[in-house]
Amino acid sequence: MKHLSERAWAGLLLVALAGCGGSAGRVAVTGTVTLDGRPLPGAVVTFYPEGETGGLGGSGRTGPDGRYALTAARGGPGVLPGEYRVVVSRLLRPDGSAPDPGTPPAESDARETLPAAYLDRASTRLRASVSEDATVHDFALRSDAKGR
Questions:
Q1: Angle, alpha carbons 126-130-131 (nearest 5°)
Q2: First-residue to last-residue Cα distance in the chain
Q3: Which residues contact 127 (CB under 8 A, 6 or more apart)?
Q4: Whole-model pTM above 0.85?
Q5: Mean of the pLDDT values across residues 45-74?
Q6: What architecture is the 24-141 domain classified under in CATH?
Q7: Band of pLDDT at residue 141, cut at 50, 70 and 90
Q8: Quick one: pLDDT at residue 13?
């Protein structure tokens, strides 16, 4: 009986580990972010779950073409289906270059370059409804957007 008990524990451990950080049920989300009609490179797009939506959301960085792909907060592609508030942020140094990822934000001279309307989780107007049929979410930002 001792082996059966050890096997049962090992099985439970495997099930628990598979549930943590696995991609079961997630939907791969991609899209493009533009600012005033042009691709927005170097922005961080973050999806925050709302209401009954499970999980912790996810984020992705836009490439030179403004395209992003979400990575779950705990790793792996995609997010769970549901409703999300979306925040978009882009920090740049005074010379227009991206901040050094090894420098803590408090020590960096990088500043936010996007309007406040896109930066705050509580007040952002950007939303996304993610499902198996809705995996592409594009965001057209405007530099003259009014915040809050």
A1: 160
A2: 64
A3: 83, 84, 85, 86
A4: no
A5: 97
A6: Sandwich (2.60)
A7: very high
A8: 37
Look up residue 55 and give its two tokens: 């999980």
> Which tokens hold the place of 104?
């803590």
Across the strands, what pairs with 61?
44
**Boundaries of every domain in the chain:** 24-141
User: Rounded CA gap, 128 and 126, in Å?
Assistant: 7
Structure-token match 């408090």, residue found: 106
Q: Residue written as tokens 């600012």?
A: 35
Scan for tokens 């925050």, then name that residue: 48
Per-residue burial over 23-51, b if 16 or more Cβ lie within 10 Å, else e, is eeebbebebbbebeeeebbbbebbbbbee
89 token code pair? 């942020």
